[in-house]
Each structure stands twice: as C-alpha cells, then as structure tokens.
Amino acid sequence: MPIIDIHIHLSDIDSFHRTAIDLSKVDYSTAGLKAEFDRNDVILGIGMGVSEQTKGAFPDSSSPNPMGLDLEEQVPSFLMECVGINPNRLDGRQAQDELDRIEARLRSPEVAGIKLYAGYYHHYVYDKIYTPVYELAAKYNLPVVIHTGDTYSMNGLLKYSHPLTVDELALQQRGVNFMICHLGDPWVMDAAEVVAKNPNVYADLSGLVVGDRPHFERFMNEPLFMDHFRRALVYSDHYEKMLFGTDWPLAPIDLYAEFVRRLVPEQHHEKVFYENAFGLFPRISQRIAELG
After folding, report:
1. Exposed, middle or buried: residue 195 (CB in 10 Å: 0-12, 13-18, 19+)?
2. How many domains does the chain have?
3. Nearest to 28 by CA among 48, 43, 8
C-alpha cells in the first residue's frame, strides 16, 4: 500500500539533529529520508517549514517569513512544503513585507499548505495577528496545519497549543481547512471532539512516540498508552479526517508506521495512510502525477 507522510521535517534545527543522533538513530539528511521513503513505500512527504537564526532557538522569534526546509537549497522532488509562519514579524512596519513574501511563496506548486507553531510562538491561533494568513489560505485554497499539544521545547507555553483553541478558530474561519497536529496529545479527547464537531478540522497522528525501536516496543506494549489514543479515535469516529505523519526525524518511518497500524483499525488503513491526504491537501495530486 502506498503511503503519504504528511508531517516530516527537513530544516537545519539543532534539536532535530540531536534527536536523530541520540534518540531516533536516523540519518537526518535528504538521502537518509529518501532511503526510508523507498524502504517503506512512501511516495510523497510534506515538510513543515521552520528555521532558527540562533542554534537551539527553535522556533526562533527572529526568523523571517516564510520559514522553509532549509536543510536543502530547494525542496526535493519527493517532498512538498508547508511554509512556516513567525507571527512575531506580522506586526508593525515590517508586516506587509512579511505577508508579501508569504504570498509569493504560496504561489509555488510545491507548497502544500501553511504551518503555525502554536505554543512555541506565544499567540493564540484565533489572534487577529494571524487573520491575514488565513485570508491567504482561503485565497489559494490551502490548509493551515497547527502544532497542538506538548511542545518540543521548554520555552513553549501550553495554553497556546491546546487543541480547544482550534475550535474557536474553526468557527471564525469556516472557509479554511485546519489540521490539528499530534492529535493534540496529551489532550487527545479534546482534539477528537474538535475534529468531530467541526467539518473543517482534521488531525494528524504524528509525533506520538519519539525514539528508536526499544522506545517503540516499550510504548506499544503498554496497553494504557495505546488505549490513550484508541479511545480518542473511537470517540471521534472520523477516520476519514485522520492522517498519517511521522514527525521524522523524531522516529524512524518503519517503526512509526507499525505503531499507527496498531492504533488504527485495519479497515481504515488505506484512508489514514494515503487517501485522506488528497482531501486535505489539494495540490498533492499534481505533485504525485509529476513524480510519475
């Protein structure tokens, strides 16, 4: 079965490099990612754009918009990109220049959507500072992907990344589709309700386990851990709005795919691993066609 991994990273972020070396033991490079894709029948990935100007400052408040996949000079052919947004630069005299650069990038066919780093940046997603970004998303028919749940940095503030904040946003912006990353973990039941209630909200299952095989074996063999997520998936009962993502390099793709296969009932695998991505990301059909 072909797979679309809708949540990976390919940015020169210090914490990603360290995680790859110390925890997941993956080759954090374009060649390493392509090798994992080939071994696991992943035909396309979507990279989440983010950058840091100072080592260890992820996400850096001084990073210019739009943030991209800066581990490479250009997006590899087997990837698309969700451009990252730094809201701290969307205020004041520089704001229009930042928005102009974002819009110029959104015109590129390799851009699949927009990424907000809620929690890392201390703004609620329904804050008016993001309104011009949502207007651009509507204009170009692109989804907005939102980090929710725990932050991979102690400098994040969890009140901004709670999935319930997306409920208010979804009501304000019914013309835009949103994706809750990481199923809002640890608030997975709240995220499940936001998905079930709002027709324009989806969720991905990325980033729920970080590490190598011993880490995965420990968690996959812990019923309380697995049931934490299964309960939310059963409650939401919207497998057509759940998408597969790994959050690579936080975990090897083969282990993460095995983990998600255990979480999701088999009859829904084709939807979660492949079909649902086409409904949320309109531009991926053309990208896959170009890959032949």
Report:
1. buried
2. 1
3. 8
Beta bridge mates, 204: 243
The CA dihedral of 259, 7, 280, 185, to the nearest 10 degrees, is 60
pTM over 0.90: yes
DSSP three-state, residue 251: coil
Domain containing 192 equals: 3-291
Q: Residue for token digits 């709002």?
A: 198
Task: State both tokens at 49.
Answer: 């754009």
**Residue 98 near residue 64 (C-beta atoms within 8 A):** yes
pLDDT in tens, the chain (292 residues): 999 999 999 999 999 999 999 999 999 999 999 999 999 999 999 999 999 998 888 888 899 999 999 999 999 999 999 999 999 999 988 999 999 999 999 999 999 999 999 999 999 999 999 999 999 999 999 999 999 999 988 888 999 999 999 999 999 999 999 999 999 999 999 999 999 999 999 999 999 999 999 999 999 999 999 999 999 999 999 999 999 999 999 999 999 999 999 999 999 999 999 999 999 999 999 999 988 7
β-partners of residue 42 are 3
Q: How far is CA 182 from CA 1, 78, 204, in A?
A: 23, 23, 6
Q: Where are the alpha helices (DSSP H) in 50-199?
A: 95-106, 131-140, 164-172, 188-197
CATH number for the domain harbouring residue 75 = 3.20.20.140
CA dihedral 232, 238, 244, 249 (to 10 degrees): -40
Name the E strands within the chain: 3-8, 42-48, 79-85, 111-116, 144-146, 178-180, 201-204, 242-243
